[in-house]
Each structure stands twice: as C-alpha cells, then as structure tokens.
Design goal:
The protein is α/β, with parallel strands linked by helices and 444 residues long. It has helices spanning 84-96, 101-117, 130-140, 161-174, 195-208, 220-230, 234-240, 258-267, 275-280, 288-293, 313-328, 336-343, 345-350, 384-391, 418-439, and strands spanning 4-14, 22-31, 34-40, 48-53, 58-61, 63-68, 120-127, 143-150, 181-183, 186-187, 212-216, 248-252, 270-273, 298-300, 368-371, 397-402, 405-409. Strands 1, 2, 3, 4, 5, 15, 16 and 17 form an 8-stranded mixed β-sheet that branches. Strands 6, 7, 8, 9 and 10 form a 5-stranded parallel β-sheet that branches. The longest helix is centred in the C-terminal third of the chain and has 22 residues, at 418-439. It is globular, with a radius of gyration of 21 Å. The structure holds zinc ion. Zinc ion is lined by residues 67, 69, 215, 251, 303-304.
C-alpha cells in the first residue's frame, strides 16, 4: 500500500467484477492511470500522494453511456412532445444543417460536464464534426468511443459521402493509440444509408478492426420502410448485406422478433438500450429481458439529450428497470444488479472496452465514482445496488475519476470553466433560434 498516487478509503466498494464482489470499508489504490489494489484495508499504513475519504459512500466503476449524440445538449427542450418525423424534419435537421465545428465542440463540452457531474466516465457518440467531439472529450478528460455519422445526404462537415469515408478514416488514424479516445465507423441507420454505403462502412470498420455502430430497428416506421424497400426486416437486411458480427454495435433494437435476436446473438452483435428516448419519442419497448435471457450483451445509453432530456444514467437505470417490469407485468425482471451491470461492465463489453473499464479490478484503468449516501433519500441503506438504481440521482455523485485523474471532487470540475461553457452554450442557443426563424419554424 505504498507509492500509490491516489487511495480511496472508507467506502462500500461494488467492484462489478464477474462475482459482483462487494467490499465493506474497502480500499482502492491507484498508480498512475491504473487500479493497482482493490480489497480490504489490511491495517497497512497507506502512503499515497492523495487519500480520498469516501465518507461511507458507495465506490463503483464509472458509468458508461453506450449511445449518445453529446452536442445535442444544445437542443435540450427546444422542441418536445412532437411526433418523431415532425420533430426531426421541422427542428433537428434544419438546425443540424447549419451547425459548425465550434457549435459541436461547445455542445459536447457542456455534455461532458453534465456526464462527469452525474458519474459517467465513458460515452459512445455518433454525430457530425466528431473530431471536435474527440477534442472536447480530451479537454474534459473523458473516455469515449466516437464516430462521424454517415448517410446518403451531404453533410455540413465533410460534404459528399466519399469525403465522409475519408474523414472517418482520418479520424481512425489521428486518434489511434490515444489513451482516452477511440474511433468507430458509424452509418446512421438502414433508412438513411444505401446498401452500398452500409457495406462500405462495414469494410472500413473491418479494415481497421474498429467497431461499426448504427441505429437498428428503432421505430415501426423504419421497419415498414425497410420492408417496403428491400422486402426484409432491418435485421434481415443487415444479415443479407453480410454485416452481422462481433464488431457491430446496434443502438435501440426496439422492434425485433425472436429469430432475429437469435441471429444477433449467434453473430456476436452487441446492443445498447435507450429506454428514456424510446419512451419520449414513443418508439416502442425493446424486448430487453428476452434479449438478456438469450445471451445478448447489452449496454445502456441516454441517446441525444433532445430526446431524453438529460444525460443522467442514474435516471436511465431507474427507467430501464421499471419499464420492463411494467411491460412484462413481472416485477422480478431487470433487477437492480442486472441494470447496474448494464450501466457498467456490460456496457463496457457492449463497446468492446471491457479490458479497459467497467469494473474495479487490478490492472484496469481507474474509472471510478463515489456516491455520497449521507442524504435523506439514501438513508438507511440495506442494499447499495437497489439505492443506485432506484433512489440515487446523478447529483449524488461526489467524486469522478477517469483514467486515474480526479476530474470531479465535491461537485466541482477543476479542469473545466463551467460558467464559461454554459455562457457559450447560451450564445449558441441564440444561433439555433435564428436558424429556425430563417426556416420559418417557430418555437413556442
Ligand atoms: Zn441515437
């Protein structure tokens, strides 16, 4: 217990390791960016540059937001309570077509601040100007897997799709071996991408051994659209294009038949569940309990916060547990442990990052959060897993460490000028309103 950089003591440690080991009054020791000790304090003298007293709180792996569009933080509350296509066509697409690099950087930095403050240490992003997303994540010192959105139309970032593939490839090369940023290839969806685009994206992902990420079977209109165009369901379509495999991460997976789940599991495809977005946009309810029973690896995501409207994975866990209990009329499905695993180690497995993060184990990168339980709504505590899923909220997180660095302590962000970020975000909201008035879309 010597020569450590940081030691966290006096907490209930939920390791989320394969045995879900829980250590009361345990110690986590960090050396550089890595966890070097997890266990009971064997009454050894602790010598470390910094000792963090968890003050009886819960110490657990940082949460993993498996699917988001971080910069959409700047559209939060802009237009709610609308049918999906009207929301997209009247509000989201018109403003997205006017965005620039600084807009995405600002929105992502704002999102990173929100995520760190609510205990998220890794996020997976799909958006435009992803180099800016990577830069913002680096500035905020967050771990991320990001990729430029690809589709059949021209993009305000890269122009034509040929340039989109070049841009994606340049991101892969630029961020290779970065300690925090990883790159994926991200065709938007089956209804916005031609079969040719999808197959080219697949080939690019395979060429560089990076993940391929897409929205899949999110809505009934997608299901009908793909059936009409190709005579197949979305999963059958990907299967026919030869794209199912362990490199594929499928977001949403709401409308799946049992035989399709079987095919996805057999091919090693991973999924990310976004219950709040699916509820808010009335997309449907993904058959998550069945998918888990059939052996699928599933993470949890918030989706963009225009369809959520926050990036708090604690509320996402709460919703995930309750939505499926109600849907199946079975209170035993999606228990707290299962849901917390989806937000930690299973989320890491879904993103292919389980050797790096997702659990507190010796040798893994130190992505750790502490939840302060000295609060009325968390007192008393019989079961910490239950508290995290059903009672805690993001603002109960007192400390966030990412890659061995303390990025939030006592609700303060030492590395980010939060007031300036929020001021800049307010300025950008003025641009959004101007762009919408140019389009003739009122915001009321
Ligand atoms: Zn999405």
């Amino acid at each position: 217990m010597q020569d450590l950089d940081i030691v966290i003591k006096n907490g209930t440690i939920l390791t989320m390791d394969p045995d879900s080991t829980l250590i009361e009054g345990g110690v986590v020791g960090l050396k550089g960016d890595t966890i070097s000790y997890v266990g009971n304090n064997r009454k050894e003298k602790i010598i470390a540059k910094k000792v963090i007293d968890a003050n009886g709180g819960i110490v657990l792996p940082g949460l993993i937001n498996g699917h988001t569009h971080a910069a959409m933080s700047l559209f939060r509350g802009l237009a709610d309570d609308l049918p999906l296509m009207e929301w997209l066509n009247k509000y989201i697409f018109p403003v997205e077509s006017r965005m620039d690099a600084d807009f995405v950087y600002t929105g992502t930095l704002l999102a990173c601040a929100e995520m760190i403050l609510s205990g998220t240490t890794t996020f997976c992003d799909m958006y435009l100007f992803e180099d800016e997303v990577a830069k913002a994540a680096k500035k905020a010192e967050m771990r991320c897997l990001v990729g430029e959105v690809l589709y059949d139309f021209d993009s305000p970032n890269y122009g034509t799709i040929e340039k989109g593939f070049e841009y994606s490839e340049s991101l892969i090369k630029k961020w290779k071996n970065d300690p925090l940023v990883s790159i994926a290839v991200e065709p938007h969806s089956l209804f916005t991408c031609s079969p040719d685009l999808l197959q080219q994206a697949n080939a690019l992902a395979l060429k560089y051994s990076v993940p391929l990420i897409t929205h899949l079977a999110e809505t009934l209109s997608e299901l009908h659209d793909i059936k009409e165009r190709y005579g197949r369901t979305p999963v059958e379509h990907l299967q026919a294009l030869g794209m199912l495999g362990p490199h594929l991460i499928a977001d949403h997976c709401v409308h799946l038949q049992e035989k399709e789940i079987k095919a996805l599991v057999q091919e090693g495809v991973k999924a990310v569940h976004n219950p709040e977005s699916n509820m808010k946009l009335a997309s449907g309810i993904a058959p998550i309990p069945k998918m888990l029973d059939m052996g699928m690896i599933i993470g949890l995501g918030t989706d963009g916060c225009a369809s959520n409207n926050n990036l708090d994975l604690f509320t996402e866990m709460d919703m995930a547990a309750k939505l499926h209990k109600l849907n199946t009329m079975d209170a035993t499905v999606m228990d707290a442990m299962t849901v917390l695993r989806m937000a930690t180690i299973e989320g890491a497995r879904a993103l292919g990052m389980e050797t790096l993060t997702g659990s507190l184990e010796k040798g893994k990168k130190a992505d750790i959060i502490i939840v302060d339980i000295k609060k009325p709504h968390l007192t008393p505590m019989y079961n910490p897993y239950s508290h995290l899923v059903y009672s805690a909220r993001g603002n109960d997180v007192s400390h966030t460490l990412i890659n061995g660095k303390l990025v939030m302590e006592g609700r303060k962000l030492p590395g980010l000028a939060l007031d300036e970020i929020m001021e800049k975000a307010r300025e950008k909201s003025g641009d959004v309103l101007r762009w919408l008035s140019d389009e003739g879309s009122g915001v009321g």
